[in-house]
Amino acid sequence: MRPVVRFLTDSLIEQIISEARTLLFRMGLEIHNDGILAMLSDHGARVDAENARVFINDDIIDKALEAAPSSFKLFGVTGEQTHDFAGHNVHFTPGSAAINILDARTEQIRKPTTADYVRYAKLVSRLDHLASQSTAMIPADVHERISDSYRLFLSLMYCHKPVVTGAFTIDAFNIMRDLQLAVRGSEQALKAKPLCVFSCCPTAPLKWSDVTSQNLVDCARYSIPVEYISMPLAGFVAPVTLVGTLIQHTAETLSGVVMSQLTNPGTPVLYGGSPAIFDVRYETTPMGAVETQMIDCAYNEIGKFLGVPTQAYIGLSDTKNLDAQGGLESAMGITLAALAGINNISGPGMIDFESCLSLEKLVLDNEICGMALRMTRGIEPREDFPSLPHFEELLRDGHLLISKHSRKYLRDEHYFPGPILDRANRARWKEEGSHPLAERASNEVERLLATYEPSPLPDDVKAELTRLMEAEAHRYRMETLPHSSL
Predict the structure, then answer these.
(1) Is the pLDDT of residue 219 over 90?
(2) CA-CA distance, 152 to 113, in Å (whole number)?
(3) β-strands 276-277, 233-234: how paired?
(4) 344: which strand partners?
(5) Are 318 and 288 in contact (CB under 8 A)?
(6) Residue 272's pLDDT is what?
(7) What's the distance, Cα to Cα, between the start and end of the chain in Å?
(8) Residue 120 to residue 114: CA distance in whole angstroms
(9) Do residues 232 and 246 touch, judged by C-beta distance below 8 A?
(10) Between 114-124 and 147-158, two packed helices, what is the crossing angle to 10 degrees?
């Protein structure tokens, strides 16, 4: 039996959805994009063009939900399936768009470079429990106008896994689309085997900017999957109560579903988000707070109730170093997310309020993800009945270390983490050097990077990716790209 955790009853979910529908119809929301306002008007929404406000009725919402797929799949760069966003299937990906990296050598936070990003992409290719990569950090050594496309370019060049990404400008979408088309070969092939998921973020409360709404409909036109990242902050730009925050999150996310499905019915989507509570003591948005994690798991239940696969930024920590707080907050979030059946879990490797990536924490979180995946398989009998023969063998031999039953099921039943987690007794631990966690994590990063194998993407495709990216860089007067010197 698969273990499952729930925070909401069906009746409470129905009340939350009803309140969100009322908000969209009575209060409406801002959309600062004339083309999208016109599209919504054409489909029956009431539009106040002067105030960029749209009022969405139940018929439009129902039509959109009916068109939204209940699941979809993702595929790696060479076309192998990696994800199935159905039911309670869970998949893990690193957090996204960090502006800093934790330097293990100096133990200081600094701006990341292309070299850091390449190390990250290579590392993710070696972490078995992360099904996808993300455009996890923003290299500071390229022009800011190409930072979105450059991150996707590096991911496709150095790692074989699909990518969770996003664009901070409208112009960036075109080159990012072309990079995907270069890998797949055609629009039809990209639609058949999606390679990326784009994060599209409304602004709390109840607002879509020109950039994010345009990215949303641009993705829909090419059937590129999107995840809606609603970010209400409980007690600041959302009601202080968890239910009130869920109502706002539901309204903002439903508005995204409407825009996607009216643009292109059947566009694959993830009902996602990155909400948080607001800690009034420090004026911060703690991603590791238990209430933040509860909101994530609860809106996942709402998404599943509506028949849409789900996503959440959860499993992150607000710590500033690789320490016990990081392990506590990430393990709790990853465990709850897995039990809740969130289909795409974003967050491993991230610290400092979603602003910093740590490669060392990424390898630690990969082990937490492995444990969580084992947990979701639950407990089931494996030739355990009748049990008498096993216990007769145990009494006869004094152990079951090499019994046929043990050898057959050991790897299935027991999860064995890598060397970053210490399971040796104290004497052996001392004999092997008494290495603390941070040192073990750093050693594991280097060990995995030393065994990196280049992406199996064909050389001609890599050459086309490079041509596209260099042309984009030349638009902003960059003669060379930093990755060429690595």
Answers:
(1) yes
(2) 14
(3) parallel
(4) 91, 311
(5) yes
(6) 98
(7) 49
(8) 10
(9) no
(10) 40
Domains annotated on the chain, with CATH: 1-379+434-486 (3.20.20.480)
pLDDT for 484: 83
- CA neighbours closer than 13 Å in the CB half-sphere of residue 452: 18
**Both tokens assigned to 145:** 């106008």
Q: Do 76 and 161 form a contact (C-beta atoms < 8 A)?
A: yes
Its sign, for the CA torsion 354, 132, 215, 70, is negative
What's the rounded Cα separation, in Å, for the pair 377 and 356?
A: 32
Cβ distance 31 to 51 under 8 Å? no
Give the residue from 167, 228, 224, 225 showing the smallest Cα distance to 202.
Answer: 228
Mean pLDDT of the region 225-232:
98
Whole-number Cα distances in Å, 129 to 69, 115, 164, 451 = 26, 24, 15, 17
Average confidence score pLDDT of the chain: 97
Q: Find how far residue 483's CA is from the centre of its chain.
A: 25
Closest by CA to 285, choosing from 203, 355, 230, 353, is 353
Tallying the residues shown for the chain, one arrives at 486
Query: And the tokens for 393?
Result: 């063998």
Residue 442 contacts by C-beta under 8 Å, 6 or more apart in sequence?
Answer: 104, 360
Alpha helix (H) residue ranges in 196-323: 210-221, 242-263, 290-305
How many CB atoms sit inside 10 A of residue 255's CB? 30
Per residue in 33-60, pLDDT tens?
999 999 999 999 999 999 999 999 999 9
Task: Write the DSSP assignment of 367-390 as a string of letters.
Answer: HHHHHHHHHHT----SS-SS-HHH
Both tokens assigned to 446:
């280097």
Q: Which residues pair with 198 in a beta bridge?
A: 165, 226
**Token pair for residue 207?**
């607002």
Mean pLDDT computed over 300-310: 98
Q: Is residue 486 very low, low, confident or very high in pLDDT (cuts 50, 70, 90)? A: confident
Token pair listed for 440: 């073990």
Helix locations, 341-436, DSSP H: 359-376, 388-397, 404-413, 426-431
